[in-house]
Amino acid sequence: MKFAVLGLMIVFLAVLFALFYVSFKMLKKVRQQERAENAAKIPQRQLHPKLQAQRDQQRREQQKSEQEKAEQEKNK
């Protein structure tokens, strides 16, 4: 009886370690796939609304100054 319980414990431990091995192997494979997929993607970043507004204002001012320069050159 003691040998049977000891044998079952050894079998259970072997199965447990086998499951750990398989799960880590699968996890490693999935991580590699995700890394390959994410390497091709460019992360999309979003600016803070205040910074976005500031950038938009600078662009508008720059476009306005370019238009004014173009108009001045036409008038000459």
Characterise the protein shown here.
- This protein is an all-alpha fold and 76 residues long.
- Helix content is 87%, strand content 0%.
- It contains two helices and no strands.
- The chain has helices at 2-40, 49-75.
- The longest helix has 39 residues, at 2-40.
- The radius of gyration is 33 Å and the shape is rod-shaped.
- The model has no long low-confidence stretch (mean pLDDT 91).
Observed structural traits:
mainly alpha; 76 residues; single chain
Helix-strand makeup class: mainly alpha
So how many helices?
2
What is the CA–CA distance across the termini? 108 Å
Task: Give the biggest beta sheet.
Answer: none
Indicate the low-confidence ranges by residue numbers. none
| Rounded radius of gyration (Å) | 33 Å
| Oligomeric organization of the protein chains | single chain
| Cα shape | rod-shaped
Q: How many beta-strand elements?
A: 0
- Helix fraction by DSSP (H/I, runs of at least 4): over 70%
Mean pLDDT: 91
Element-by-element helix/strand order: HH
Beta-strand content bin: under 5%
